[in-house]
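User: Second chain of the day. Same drill as before.
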Amino acid sequence: MRRSVALLLFPEVEVLDFAGPFEVFSVTDELSDHTAFAVSIVASTPTVKARNGLRVVADHTLESCPHADILIVPGGFGTRALLQQPDILAWVRTRATAAERVMSVCTGSLVLAKAGLLDGLRVTTHHQVLPMLTELAPRSTVDPTRRFHDNGHILTAAGISAGIDCSLHLVGQLLGKDTAAKTAAYMEYEVHPGS
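Assistant: Same format as last time:
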């Protein structure tokens, strides 16, 4: 079964936060003869201006986005604005409930926390915003000692490049460690010890 992967983008999203997972799931799909993952970009506007000016064209709006088996919420400075947008938080909450897996990268965890999705979980985020995550998710255990935490349904990755490690981990969980290793080798990416 080819799983659908939706990456939620927004203004000032950190580029590697979404580009890293995009590459992992897309390369895995390519190496699997396009039977593994269908990856799409979702945003509230047709185009998004990411951090440092990169413009990205969305595949779907929030309204037109089909079911996502895997929902990925990247981070970046733009997450601060999302915390004040009840419609986005409601969309994330609804889509997360229907998804097989939900993953945040970097400060995307703040969005999951504000949407009420991290209660009782062991979580992480970018090292500079650990206190903010602790404040937004008081019923969670914020643990910065690992690059990511897998709670089954919800995974949280630390800052920026940790999203690649978490994505490869998720590929390994869903399709086997050999598939994840093949993807990492193709990307010439050295998985961090302990990931």
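The chain has a mean pLDDT of 97.

User: Great, on to the next one.
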